[in-house]
Prior knowledge:
Blueprint (H helix, E strand, L loop, with lengths): L5 H10 L2 H10 L6 E5 L6 H10 L5 E2 L6 E4 L4 H5 L2 H4 L3 E3 L2 H10 L6 E4 L6 H9 L5 E6 L2 H13 L5 E5 L5 H4 L4 E7 L21 H21 E11 L8 H11 L3 E4 L8 E3 L3 E2 L2 E2 L8 E3 L8 E8 L2
Parallel strand pairs: 5-6, 5-8, 6-7, 8-9
Antiparallel strand pairs: 1-3, 1-4, 2-3, 9-15, 10-15, 11-14, 12-13, 14-15
Helix pairs in contact: 6-7, 10-11
Amino acid sequence: MAVLPEPFVTRLEEILPTDSLKACLDSFSVIKPTTFRVNTLKTTEARLCRELESDGFQLVRVSWGKGVFTVAPERRRRLTESPAFEEGRIYIQGLSSMLAPWVLDPRPGETVLDLAAAPGGKTLLMAAMMENRGQLSAVESVKGRFFRLRSNLERHGVTMVKTYLMDGRAVGSKVPERFDRVLLDAPCSSEARFNTREPSSWSHWSLKKIKESARKQRRLLDSAIRSLKPGGELLYCTCSFAPEENEMIVDAQLRRYGAGLSVQPVALPLDHCQNGLVHWRGKSLHGDLVKAVRVLPTPELDGFFLCKLKKNG
Length: 313
């Protein structure tokens, strides 16, 4: 197996608690189980379990995720060839990715924005949580990813989503104060997806890549905040460990908006989490960032950063 880039490991040593570092590094070599959730817009959990178990699948329920199951990694291909997958009754998705919609908690009848939506896993979960009632707008700027998003929505029975092929950085100025809730799973350096079995997973990573991602993230988060109604809530998340892509992005907006923006606590049913950083390489960050959460990777979950914001009246 390949060795992770030394600058990346050095940065992890600064970011993570000492007693969590080894487990985190070991997780990059693990073949994780395949995880999926039941699409309640097309079936029920009981019916889906009967269907897959009769087809020979041994399902393991994820205790903290309603309608979420795992199968052994060697059964992934068989699962993707099943009628349940092909007809949109299940959606294969990493456990960490499912956390974002659950934390944002969109409700039926609300007006919600997914600002960087493709390939659509989080959009689909929010549509199911909203019971296909309300208005869910999904924005994607890359044409190929946009059409994949639309295909996923159609196959999974989503009817209340409007899709937009556009740069998310322009949304806030086009539709200011439009949405009750906004999800921004920002494009990032994807550090949590590194795999020592696949060196290509970090072939594009560099300190320059982190800086480039941060520039785009700052403008996307500003757009998200501007599109949010007063009193509305926003979830900012990435699959990067880098504070430059996480805490520092939010810190800039907290200082810009002052009392107009506040950090809300994030409660997760996990014990392998780290509070957001309030110091990074000699720079002091907003104290409320301690309420943000960095999910630490395990043999089942990838690393993930989540910060929930409220736009005050």
